[in-house]
């Protein structure tokens, strides 16, 4: 048995060689967001397999939030464990499709392509299907991803991990409940006035059992997704941030380590919000990123 947790590609390749591994199988569920780290574990495993001369097999699964791509592309200067390579925030690809893209686009610069990459395809999935439409049973891929709705909200609300507000960890609805001590009804009211597609907001009060503000009463909002197909998680996340800063300027702020830049993939969000940019201006700033990524990924897509 080998402890591969946190291993680099070179270290992992050494384990493969020592154990005489000829095939590596990736069978882990992803949730469709760049900062959900399982795809980067897959990437590291792919690089290691290429170095060790092993075959890499992906047992593919549906993307639970559908096949549409949105959001900013990661700037390589902000590469980290929550985003290693320049893909958009909501990539709209399955793990198998990403593996095909990674192998052609990124592995050559990290030691060479896999000679043997095999994707065992999902039967019957189409790109416009969300998880609720698959008739599959949801198994939480991690403790703070308890439901398909969590995954839908996550591309936008995980950005709150880069702020001083709670992202809902320590509650039964992580990434759907957001807030901080002192936040009141004004945040919810200001959000409702924006008529964001597919979502309504409920004023809420909560006490996290762990994470930010453990055992402290927080005020905030709960996200209720009313139309999953119309819902735009990243736009909603940006609206939540911009509105929180406007309504509660003394309470809202960024983490001191600027972790938001790693989550977003650049310092663009932080600097634009601090400069007073509105939601439409911020969302519009990555339109070229999204268009280019959509074009580039086309040849790697398996499902239509």
From TrEMBL:
| Peptidoglycan beta-N-acetylmuramidase NamZ N-terminal domain segment(s) | 2-148
* Database matches in Pfam families: NamZ_C (PF20732), NamZ_N (PF07075)
Q: Where is the Peptidoglycan beta-N-acetylmuramidase NamZ C-terminal domain?
A: 152-303
A Gene Ontology molecular function term for this protein is: peptidoglycan beta-N-acetylmuramidase activity
Q: What name has this protein been given in UniProt?
A: Uncharacterized protein YbbC (DUF1343 family)
């Amino acid at each position: 048995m080998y402890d591969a947790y946190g291993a680099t590609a070179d270290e992992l390749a050494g384990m493969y060689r020592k154990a005489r591994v000829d095939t590596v199988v990736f069978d882990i569920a992803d949730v469709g967001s760049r900062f959900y780290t399982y795809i980067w574990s897959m990437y590291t495993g792919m690089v290691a397999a290429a170095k060790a001369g092993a075959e890499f097999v992906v047992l593919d699964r549906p993307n639970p939030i559908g096949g549409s791509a949105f959001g900013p592309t990661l700037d390589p200067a902000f590469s980290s464990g929550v985003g290693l390579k320049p893909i958009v925030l909501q990539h709209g690809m399955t793990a198998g499709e990403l593996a095909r893209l990674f192998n052609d686009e990124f592995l050559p610069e990290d030691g060479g392509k896999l000679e043997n990459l095999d994707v065992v395809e999902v039967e019957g999935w189409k790109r416009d299907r969300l998880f609720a439409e698959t008739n599959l049973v949801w198994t939480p891929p991690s403790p703070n991803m308890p439901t398909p709705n969590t995954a839908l909200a996550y591309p936008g609300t995980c950005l709150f991990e880069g702020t001083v507000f709670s992202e809902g960890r320590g509650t039964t609805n992580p990434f759907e409940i957001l807030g901080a001590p002192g936040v009141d009804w004004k945040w919810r009211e200001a959000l409702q006035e924006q008529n964001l597609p597919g979502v309504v907001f409920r004023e809420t009060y909560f006490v996290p059992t762990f994470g930010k503000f453990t055992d402290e009463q927080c005020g905030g909002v709960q996200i209720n997704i009313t139309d999953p197909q119309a819902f735009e998680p990243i736009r909603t996340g940006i609206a939540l941030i911009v509105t929180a800063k406007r309504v509660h300027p003394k309470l809202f702020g960024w983490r001191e380590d600027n972790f938001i830049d790693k989550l977003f993939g650049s310092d663009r969000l932080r600097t634009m919000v601090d400069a007073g940019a509105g939601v439409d201006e911020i969302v519009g700033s990555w339109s070229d990123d999204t268009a280019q990524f959509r074009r580039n990924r086309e040849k790697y897509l398996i499902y239509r």
